[in-house]
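User: These chains co-purify. Model them together.
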Amino acid sequence: MRNIAGLLFAGGLAFLLLVLASYLPYGQTPMFLGDAILAHAPGEVHTANIVAAVLLAYRGIDTLGELSILFTAAAGVGLILGHRSLRSDSAGVNGAVNSEQHSGFITTRAVDLIMPLLMVVGFYIIFYGHVTPGGGFQGGVILATAFFLPVLVRPGTRIEHGVITLLEGLAGSGFILVGLWAMFYDQPFLQPIFDSFLGTGPLGSLWSAGSLPLLYLAVGLKVGSELAGLLVTVSEVPELSETNISDADDINRK
Amino acid sequence: MDNIVLLVVLPLLAAFLMPVVARSSEVVARTLGLSVLFISIGIILNVWSQSGQIDSQAVSIVIGGFLPPLGINFYVDQISLFFALAVPVMVLLFWPWHRATSIREYSLMMLLTASASGLILSGDLFNIYVFYELLGIASYSLVAIQGRVSAVAASFRYLLMGSVGSVMMLLGIAIIYTQTGTLNLAHLSLLAPEKLNNMLGLASFALILTGMGVKAELFPVNSWVPEVYGSVSSNLAALMAGLLSKLAVIVIVRLLILLFPQPEALQLMGMLGILGVLTGELVAWRSRDFVRMLSFSSIGQLGLIFLAFSIPGEMGMMAGIAIALHHMLVKPALFMLATGWRGAVENLSGVARRSPFVVLLFIVLILSLLGIPPLPGFWAKYLLMVGLSSQDGFIYTLGMIIVPLAMVIEMAYLFKIVMIMYRKDNDEPAVNNSNIVDDSNIVDDSNIKVVQKHSKWGLAIAASVAAMLIAIVLQLQPASDKLLSLANQLSDRNYYISTVFPQIHTVRMQSIK
Amino acid sequence: MPAIEVVLYSGAIGLSIIGLTGLLLLNNVFRMLLALVILESGVNLLLILSGFRLAGVAPVILPEQLSNLSAIVMNDPVPQALVLTAIVIGVGVQALGLAMILRIKAQYGTLNMLKIREQLEFDLAVQSGVATPVSAHSPVSLASGRERQLSNHKDEQ
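Assistant: Joint model of the three components:
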């Protein structure tokens, strides 16, 4: 019964999407918002990367919302996996694994070598986010990878969660404080600030786009720390028994 | 006036900072959240008192200094200001005081507050989606951390349903964006009669309804309701059933008014509402424990709200707002009473002799929920019936039959409880019941203890709600005037457009077009 | 209609349908989560295609283009920003879902949605006192829950 209803629904959606596809103005969609932003952004926000202008200036509160979503998810995951039922046996098992089950000399050394390079790449992508394709999200993900790789090759490493907590809290508040800074000058929340000491360089240079690089730095650190926190939390869960995927009948045959 | 944006920003700031502050001082971190809630209430009251003209004039607040439709704006009118006030007040009332709560749970409560305020204030389609997702993720997390693993399982099912819903909503937004090329609600509303008044518009409405309907307990996507409300604490259930579902309803109604002018959209919503009423009330009638009964009755009431809002014209709008506000008052109070009465309905026998006052309170609340004159619930249902009778059309005629029928079913099961409460019964099965639950607590370690006594706080909330209901009866005329002005403001599309785009700006926009 | 667009659109639609069908037909909660991921990527692809222009380039201004900005056709930057947001939201949901799956697996001992649902209904009934925990298939404790799951597993074999 559930199958039939489900298939009907999926079929309906497929039909809808196909109808939609036949209606679409291929390659020449009405771009009211897009055109207006493309026309105004270089003059108003001074970013060469216009997606960055949309993310941080025109739709800045969306970005704040999505940072909060990552934060919420990280907090939820921490609380759910911090439960006793998942933690009680982890200390013993992981402690035993720690010394024996590392990933071998070559992998470990390679990761140690590559980690600082990844850090540099991540920060480069964050700092040049308003000039080149890239930015806080992409850079943040690379930072999280750089942080997580050493944990991956040395299973059972204890990570001090305090650093992550501190970083995610401060980066998130940094984003909001930059927004509130504008309100302090009687401007709307998150209005980009083009002050004397902030980036006032020509379009396309690193030192341009006012307070946006600051916002991108906050985004990058926030995304990096949240993702690293998520990965580390999930990796600390002890192994569950093996009878997992195979025992579930996949298709409901009723 | 610009301070309104702080309603969203300050709770977020507090949520980010709380875990950091808690590392040095737990107490400061805990008070941080509460003080932000008080500041939010203060800001709204200040706006309300300072600008008396908010009653007649809505305001659009620009964020980031970019005028809409390029930037995102918050739209503040009477109803959004009212709900923006209700959010911190209700979060404060149902704050998880009593447990040794982790600081991260407080953080989640602050995120819930911020997203709820943002959802009701936002004037941008995609921004609404973002806040709706934030609201969703915060509530999945809050449900999942209630201790028992059954809460996690319930929350996972809720998460699957909610995220499929929001993907559908995103699809609806994508369709709207391909058709119009803009996301601002006022601008969309300007373009809607021309661009969205077709099958694709209707399809995107159906998709958005599927997405937002998950939180609003709309008919086909509400199977999470009994599971979730049954496994969380009464405080959280009261908050979710009372506040969050209403926020989703108001946002759906706003989108419906602004974006989808076609009558089919209204009929679709009305039909789903009727199905919700029927299924909700029938299952509530058959359910055997009190919390489950309340959950299903909540589905039924939300169905009534959708039915009311599907009536075109101001009568439907008034009825919808009235039932929504009434349910927002009564249901949390009932959930607070349920704290003391968890368990099978049969166990409640003899309760009336032990705590006559509480049972009296319960009777006042359910009488109003049923719609017995002269309590406010009656006037809400009266408005609904008048609105239904003024329309012709299959849905509305069906509604005329279903609404009284639902009332009869509701009466049957609610009075069954009252009868049981007044039954003379000397043994006390309630004690057995608590033993059983304690057994399962040991193995399933929960921090919700089944309280057999009502908390004073919960009783105080329920009593003040009952008092408020009676106060509304005494002040019926001012209340209905207020309702009429709320309904007028909510249903006026042109007013919304002209608020967001004042004259000069409209001219400029037309030149761009 | 250029071929590349046909490919992209059918990809987006196909991914959405695969994801939705998977969600409706699969019973393994982990695979359901993966189906959700596929559904999300399909819809994201559709959303980003809504800003696609023939002969459009990425909305990044290169230094040498500064002189004649109006001459270049750029793709709509807004859907790109929206999709970035939607992807991040998706990551959050998936992480949360994964954590819940780990917790459910640890305590219910199964990943089958039907069994989880059955057990959930039972737990709720026990909690609210309308079912006695000492009935024939009572999963009152974690251990017996696992045993039951294992015995069911044996039965099926």
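Chain B touches chain A through 62 residues (CB under 8 Å).
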